[in-house]
Design a protein that fits this description.
The protein has 5 helices and 18 strands. By secondary structure, it is α+β, with helices and mostly antiparallel strands. The chain folds into 2 domains: 57 residues; 305 residues, no CATH class. It has an 8-stranded antiparallel beta sheet with strand order 1-2-3-14-13-15-11-12. The protein has a 5-stranded antiparallel beta sheet with strand order 4-18-5-16-17, with no helix packed on it. The chain has a 5-stranded antiparallel beta sheet with strand order 7-6-10-8-9, with no helix packed on it. A hairpin with a 5-residue loop joins strand 16 and strand 17. Keywords: Membrane, Transmembrane, Transmembrane helix.
C-alpha cells in the first residue's frame, strides 16, 4: 500500500464513483422544525401584545393608581367576571364590626369651618335658608359627637351658605358605619361635568380632565362621577357630544344651560332638550318617591351591576335631589347598596342614584377661602383615599364640580 502522506492513494480495490450535489439546493428541514417556529411566533405575539397594552395602561395620562389601572386593564381584556367574583368575595368576607365609628373616620370641625358657622348664624332665623331636612341620629346606640349636625361651608354671593356637610349612620345592623353627607343649594351654585383623560371612551373630548384654572377661585365642591361606561348600563353626553347610548329607564344626572341639576329616570323624569348641556347615566335609580327602591337587596335583572355586588361592604357614593331641587351627595366606607339608598333618603333625597364605588374611586371635597384668601379643599370624610385637590390635576375619570353663582 502506498504512502497517503504524499497526496496519492493506492489501492488494489476499484474506486466507487460518488455523486456530489453541486446545484446549491438545501435539503428541506423537517416539518416539526417549522411548526416549532410558528408556535414560538404565536406565543411571542400573545405575550408581547398584551404586555405592550398593559404598559400603555400603566403610563396613560391622568391620575390613577397602578392598582386601579391594572384592574381596569384586566376588565377590558376579558377579565370582568374574574374581577367581579374576587371583589364580591373580598368585600363580603369581613362585615364591619363595633358599636361606634372609628373617631379617625369622622369629620373634624376646622377653624375654617368654625368661621363659616359664625358667618351663617345670621341666617338661622330664615327658614328658607336653612338645610332642608333634620338628619336622623341612630337610635339604640350611644350618640356620636357631631352626628346629624349640619355644618355650613362656603358662603354664596348673598352671604348664605352654598353648601352644608354632615354625617349620619344609615345601617342599624352595623352602627360603626358612617356616611358623609353634603347638601348644595341650587340657587347658589352652578354645576359642571368634566370628561376625564380616559373616561368616557371615544374621541373629541378635551381630555384636560381637570377643573379649569379660571374656575378654581369659585369652587364650592368637586366629586366623583359614576362607573365606567362599560359597566354603567347607560350613556354620557356633554356639550353636543355623546358616548354610549342614553337609555330609557336609567338613572340620570342632568345639567342644563343655566348650571341647574335635575336627577331622575331617563324618559320619565328627564329627557333630552336644547337646554341640556350634560347627562351622566349610571345604572337604575336607588331612591324614588323619597324611598329606597324595592329590590335593592336581590338586584333582580342586575339593574345595579353584577349579581351580589349589592352585598359588598365597600366605599360607595351616590347623588340625589331633595324636594326643592337641591343636590345631595353621600358617601362612606363599608356601605351596602341598601345602606347607601337609606343614607340618601335620610339626607332628604326624593330621587337618587349610585355613583362610583370602591376605595380609590370615591372622592368629595368642599372648598372655602382660608384667612389668607387662598382656597382650601376639605374631604367630606377624612379617610377618603384620594387627595382633597384631586380634580385640580388631570384625572382619568369624569367628574362633577360646583361653582358659586355670581348673583
Amino acid at each position: 500500500m502506498g504512502d497517503a502522506r504524499g497526496g496519492s492513494l493506492a489501492t488494489d480495490e476499484p474506486l466507487t464513483p460518488v455523486a456530489v450535489d453541486v446545484s446549491g439546493a438545501v435539503t428541506p428541514r423537517p416539518r416539526s422544525t417549522h411548526r416549532r417556529r410558528w408556535i414560538a411566533v404565536v406565543v411571542t405575539v400573545l405575550l408581547v401584545g398584551p404586555g405592550v397594552s398593559y404598559v400603555q395602561a400603566l403610563t396613560y395620562p391622568g391620575s390613577a393608581s397602578w392598582q386601579m389601572r391594572s384592574v381596569e386593564w384586566f376588565r377590558n381584556h376579558g377579565g370582568t367576571n374574574v374581577v367581579n367574583a374576587v371583589e364580591n368575595w373580598y368585600y363580603t368576607i369581613q362585615p364591619p364590626t363595633g358599636s361606634a365609628p372609628d373617631p379617625a373616620s369622622l369629620p373634624v370641625v376646622t377653624s375654617q369651618v368654625a368661621r363659616s358657622l359664625t358667618a351663617a348664624r345670621g341666617t338661622a332665623s330664615r327658614p328658607d335658608l336653612r338645610p332642608p331636612t333634620v338628619l336622623p341620629v341612630l337610635t339604640g346606640h350611644s350618640a356620636v359627637p357631631g352626628e346629624g349636625r349640619w355644618v355650613p361651608g362656603r358662603l354664596g354671593a348673598s352671604g348664605v351658605p352654598a353648601i352644608y356637610t354632615s354625617f349620619l349612620r344609615p345601617d342599624p345592623a352595623h352602627p360603626s358605619v358612617v356616611a358623609g353627607v353634603a347638601w348644595m343649594r341650587a340657587h347658589a351654585t352652578y354645576a359642571h361635568l368634566v370628561a376625564g383623560t380616559l373616561e368616557p371612551p371615544g374621541s373629541g373630548w378635551s381630555r384636560a380632565g381637570r377643573v379649569p384654572a379660571s374656575e378654581v377661585r369659585a369652587l364650592v365642591a368637586s366629586f366623583n362621577s359614576g362607573w365606567t361606561l362599560n359597566d354603567a348600563q347607560g350613556g354620557f353626553y356633554l356639550s353636543g357630544r355623546g358616548a354610549g347610548s342614553l337609555r330609557d329607564g336609567q338613572a340620570s344626572l342632568v345639567i342644563d344651560d343655566h348650571g341647574r341639576v335635575t336627577l331622575g329616570q331617563w324618559g320619565r323624569d328627564v329627557t333630552m332638550s336644547r337646554h341640556v348641556v350634560a347627562v351622566r347615566q349610571n345604572l337604575a335609580l336607588i331612591v324614588d318617591h323619597g324611598r329606597p327602591v324595592a329590590g335593592l337587596s336581590s338586584n333582580v335583572g342586575q339593574r345595579w351591576g353584577n349579581a351580589k355586588n349589592q352585598y359588598q361592604f365597600t366605599w360607595r357614593s351616590g347623588a340625589g335631589l331633595d324636594a326643592t331641587g337641591n343636590l345631595v351627595y353621600v358617601a362612606g366606607a363599608d356601605l351596602t347598596l341598601q345602606a347607601l339608598a337609606t343614607a340618601l333618603t335620610d339626607a332628604g333625597a326624593v330621587r337618587g342614584m349610585e355613583l362610583d364605588i370602591h376605595t380609590v374611586m370615591v372622592s368629595f371635597s368642599s372648598w372655602a377661602p382660608s384667612p389668607s384668601g387662598s382656597l382650601t379643599p376639605t374631604k367630606l370624610l377624612p379617610k377618603m383615599n384620594r387627595p382633597a385637590d384631586r380634580y385640580l390635576a388631570a384625572d382619568q375619570r369624569d367628574f362633577f364640580y360646583l361653582t358659586l353663582r355670581s348673583t
